[in-house]
Amino acid sequence: MKFGIIGAGMIGHFHAKAITAMTGGTLHSVFDLRAEAAEKLGKEYGAKPFSNIDEFLADPELEIVTIGTPSGAHLDPALAALNAGKHVICEKPLEVTVERIDILMGAAAKHGKTLAAVLNRRFHPGMDAFKKAADQGRFGKLTSASCYVKWYRDQAYYDSAAWRGTWALDGGGALMNQSIHTVDALIYLAGPIKAVQANTACLAHERIEVEDIVVAIVEFENGARGVIECSTCTWSKYGHPARVQLAGTDGSVFLADESFELWDFRNEQPEDAEIRRTLMKGHEAGLGANDPSAINFYQHQRNFEEVVNAIREGRVPTTSAAEARKPVAVIRAIYESAQNGGKRVEL
Q1: Are 228 and 174 in contact (CB under 8 A)?
Q2: What's the pLDDT at 17?
Q3: What average pLDDT does the segment 285-299 reach?
Q4: Number of domains in the chain
Q5: Core vs surface per residue 8-43: b (16+ CB within 10 A) or e
Q6: What pLDDT sits at residue 294?
Q7: In whole angstroms, how far apart are CA 88 and each of 12, 112, 191?
Q8: The pLDDT value given to residue 281
Q9: Is 257 helix (H, G, I), strand (E, B) or coil?
């Protein structure tokens, strides 16, 4: 299928790399309001550049559009693409409020097109093994489920673009921007969240509207309790990995980025020894912990391939808009709780 990218910035380059490497898709075109940016990215990857959105979307060969604009600027281009009869794969978050996501889902349904998200941290062998264990009920009664993203962004990061650190275009701070993939992973593995209580602060940055640290107490529908802790003010020389930790009456698994710090079950299965041999954590730096450009693109590649396969097979992709809506709903509930003195907010 032929892909077009909206947004020729850092994320657009990421998408171009993933599309070029994927099976089942080719990069056909690039759109950016900055003509020179579109031309540069298009030339680098052999794609047609556009600086007029109507001309870009009118191309009959274009089938799938990926969105790489700032978080709070996903609605308009995604809506335009869906209304033009294109499938859409949108970067995280799908949009910064559930109301905007619902508008996009309505447009996709109206036009019979697939609306999917980039939930790339679902696509690696460690997550595959973790999800299998959770689905098989190997934790027994799940009692504890938490995630931690203790990352660092310097002041120059927020000063580098006017939209960074704003509610309107970033949609939030350390939680919505840097941590949404890890929150998604927590829900993906542990199940729906029933209620949250939260506190946020901006402790180490200036001239931003949003939080650089958040701590939330979480109650899951299955009864488990946990913590969501996220920051962009926790410095480390190499950067801390993003962690997801599940534990229950029969097992405990701690995932750090793409490998495990703990894989321990009361009832051993044959594959456990191989998982510990091949997927246990070494001492590598956290992926994207200090440098957002250091994230691997192969997970985007697998994400794009999943959406193409779903379209061809006539099914809903595993990274559907409905899936992408879940972490946004949780994050918005956390913000609501923090803005109201830590009151309990039910989802």
Answers
A1: no
A2: 96
A3: 65
A4: 2
A5: beebbbbbbbbbbebeebebbbbbbeeeebbbbbbe
A6: 56
A7: 14, 12, 26
A8: 81
A9: coil
Averaged pLDDT, 272-281: 95
Residue 5 and residue 27 in contact, taking contact as beta carbons nearer than 8 Å: yes
Query: Rounded CA gap, 170 and 333, in Å?
Result: 16
| Residue 152, token pair as written in the block | 């660092």
pLDDT of amino acid 297: 84
Q: At what angle do helices 75-83 and 98-111 cross, to 10 degrees?
A: 10
Q: What is the spatial distance between Cα 250 and Cα 139, in angstroms, rounded to a whole number?
A: 5
Picking from 98, 117, 136, the residue at the C-terminal end of a domain is: 117
Instruction: Report the DSSP pairing between strands 48-50 and 213-220.
Output: unpaired
pLDDT tens string 193-223? 999 999 999 999 999 999 999 999 999 999 9
Note whether 194 and 157 are same-domain residues. yes
Largest CA distance in the chain: 59
pLDDT score at 293: 56
142 vs 135: CA distance, rounded Å: 12
Domain that holds residue 31: 2-117
CA-nearest of 69, 176, 185 to 123 is 185
Whether pLDDT at 104 is above 60? yes
104 and 133 housed in the same domain: no
> Hunting for tokens 């294109």 — which residue is that?
86
Calpha distance 324→344 (Å, rounded)? 23
Question: Angle of helix 180-190 relative to helix 125-135, nearest 10 degrees?
Answer: 30
Query: Is residue 312 included in any domain, yes or no?
Result: no
Q: Based on the domain organization, do 240 and 161 belong to the same domain?
A: yes
pLDDT at 286 over 90: no
340, 257: one domain: yes
End-to-end CA distance of the chain: 38
Give the residue carrying structure tokens 């999917």.
Answer: 116
Q: Which of the four pLDDT bands, split at 50, 70 and 90, describes residue 158?
A: very high
Distance of alpha carbon 234 from alpha carbon 137, whole angstroms: 34
Residue 160 has pLDDT above 60, yes or no: yes
Taking residue 125's Cβ as centre, other Cβ atoms within 10 Å add up to: 12
101 and 204 fall within a common domain: no
